[in-house]
Specification:
Elements: E1 17-26, E2 37-41, E3 54-59, E4 65-71, E5 73-80, E6 90-91, E7 104-106, E8 111-113, E9 116-118, E10 122-127, E11 129-130, E12 133-134, E13 139-143, E14 152-153, E15 162-167, E16 174-178, E17 185-186
Parallel strand pairs: 1-8, 1-9
Antiparallel strand pairs: 1-4, 2-3, 2-5, 5-6, 5-7, 10-15, 11-12, 13-14, 13-16, 16-17
C-alpha cells in the first residue's frame, strides 16, 4: 500500500503587511487584460538607478484585476506580458523606463490601488552570431530618443542565438548586442555602434 506523508509548516510571520491591487487594461480599448504578470520589485539600496530584488508577483484575472500582499514598505511594479506577447513591458504607472517608474507604498492593513494601462508593442527579433556561429547568452537591447536614455533589453539569447524584443511604439530604435568576450555591436554597425541602422517598430 502506498503511504502519503504530509509535512505541515507553520506560517511565516512577515510582520505588518498590506495589499496592492488594481486593474490592468489595454490603453487603446480600455478592455481588461488577463494573464499579465505584475511583479513587486524592491528599491535597490546600493544603486537606486537600477531595480532591486524581486518581491513576489501575481497574474491578472479575466477581469484584469490583480492583488499582491506584501510587507509594509515601498515597491516598484513591473508588468510583463509573458502569455500573449502582445503588450510592451511597463513599470507602474505605465511607463517604459524604470527611471520614470513611481513607487507604490504598502501600508499596514491598507489596500493601495495601482491601475495600469498597457500599450500594444511591436516586435524586433533576430539572431546574434560571431565568427564561430550563434552566440548563446548575449544581451540585446534597444534604445530610442523618444524614450530618453533608458535601454529595453531582451532575455539572454538561446542556443541558436535567437532573441525577441517587444517594444512600445517609438520613432525608431538602435539595437545593440553584447556578450562576454565580444565588443558591443549595433545592428548594421561597422565599428561598435558607429553607423548603426535604426530599426522602425510598427504596431
Amino acid at each position: 500500500d502506498a503511504t502519503l506523508d504530509k509535512v505541515l509548516y507553520p506560517p511565516i510571520d512577515v510582520g505588518p503587511s498590506g495589499l496592492v491591487s488594481g486593474l490592468v487594461r489595454d490603453a487603446s480599448t480600455l478592455n481588461p487584460i488577463e494573464g499579465i504578470f505584475v511583479a513587486g520589485v524592491e528599491p535597490n539600496p546600493m544603486d537606486p538607478s537600477i531595480p532591486g530584488a524581486f518581491a513576489g508577483g501575481a497574474s491578472t484575472c479575466a477581469d484584469g484585476s490583480y492583488r499582491l500582499k506584501r510587507p509594509v514598505g515601498d515597491y516598484y511594479l513591473e508588468l510583463g506580458d509573458f502569455e500573449l506577447g502582445l503588450y510592451a513591458p511597463a513599470w507602474y504607472p505605465g511607463v517604459a523606463c524604470f527611471e520614470d517608474a513611481t513607487l507604490v507604498s504598502v501600508t499596514e492593513g491598507g489596500n493601495t490601488t495601482a491601475n495600469v494601462d498597457l500599450v500594444r508593442g511591436g516586435t524586433i527579433s533576430g539572431t546574434v552570431v560571431g565568427n564561430g556561429g550563434p552566440i548563446e547568452g548575449a544581451s540585446v537591447c534597444a534604445e530610442s530618443a523618444t524614450l530618453g536614455t533608458c535601454q529595453l533589453c531582451s532575455d539572454p539569447t538561446d542556443a541558436n542565438g535567437s532573441y525577441t524584443l517587444v517594444l512600445p511604439p517609438a520613432t525608431d530604435y538602435v539595437v545593440s548586442a553584447f556578450a562576454p568576450g565580444f565588443d558591443e555591436q549595433c545592428y548594421d554597425g561597422f565599428d561598435g555602434c558607429s553607423g548603426g541602422t535604426p530599426v522602425a517598430v510598427v504596431v
